[in-house]
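Example record for the data management plan.
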Amino acid sequence: MSAGSHSDSTVYPDEVQAERIRIIGNAYAQAEQIADAGLSAILAQIPSYAARDSTFHADVHDQLTRLCRSGLSAFLEHRKVTVEELAYTRRAAVRRARAGLTLVDYITAFRLGQQATWKALLAFAGESEAGRQAALSMVAPLARYNDLVSTEAANAYLEFQQACSADFGREGQDLLERLLAGALPERGPLLAKASAHGIGAESTAAMVVVTATVLDSQLRAAQDGTDTEARQLAAAAMAGVGVNGLRTLAVVRGTEIIAVPALNRSASTGELCERLQAMQRKLSAAGITLAVGVSTVVAGIAQLPTAYQQSRNALGLLLEAGGVLALPHITPFRYLMLRADDTARHLIDPGIAAVLSDDRTRGGVLADTIRAFAAADMNLREAADTLRIHHNTAKYRLRRIQDLTGRSVRSVNDLIELLVAIELQQPAAPVGS
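Corresponding structural encoding:
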């Protein structure tokens, strides 16, 4: 996944290109020394940084070193900088915000670190004409890189501050508790807050409840080793996934992040789920593995307690890899299969289980044929068209299935048994997302 580029497609003379490689290579090798210079400038010019302890200074030095190397390596390799490479920048921004530094001081420190990198590049360029041309050719791409990284850092900083602000504080907690109890505040600031999030404006307005949990994170609260910061960042990100032009109410509640998005008049969850997926992927790239469960669509505050329980049920069906499981986007059959226990799996005919297991190692063509045949309402030609195979091939496969399992796919009971066996042998991966 690429975050942006500072590559340059311009064709330069061989001597200039050689100088570019030499300069960047030297700077990469001297990244620690460049970070030394950047840290010295920061401590000399920003009192809030100078007042911190050696552990804090070492963290800043590490950030400067990694910032220098990630940009230079992408430049040397003529490739885009990836979101994964910039994840440390977002984590560092959260640590600075958590430490109480102002955004102005943080951005100033960032600028001083980049100045140290640029001074080093100029020094390595030397006095030759080719060296000067090489240095000038790097101005625009490095500026784009700096803009990209500074934007990521500032966004992470502001998201963290926002997550810690009053919007996610006591009022948000109180409002969420009222809603999960199926009640809407009758008056006062809580009612105003609900209205600001599109909740309660109409008695039958469509809503869902989204419940998420952090499965793994590179962010930990220093005092207790928990994922507090990761959950706060996830809540801030979830607040921005609304589809009706309003921010979504999103609150950290214990180990969960709970959101109540108000849907638009069509009550469609498609756009919301797309945004939740994008949010989940972005957080994953930043080192936060999130699992997200989405309830069915409900109309009215009184149904929110049920929707909350549904979202938790969906959350419980996700693997440790995380993802988004949206109940509106899966069938009742698929939901029941996901909730099946070990007893249900033991009820599968061992012969069928063995056939499906062998089929899976061979690419799953028989299972795919069974699914397509069922989806086509037992219409052989339609199933063959869906699979893009000749109908004689489909007919052969169905005969093969009957020979191996002793079940006829033209029998409703046998077909259901085969479909259940297929679904129960599938891992409970994110679905409907």
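Summary line stored alongside the record: The radius of gyration is 28 Å.
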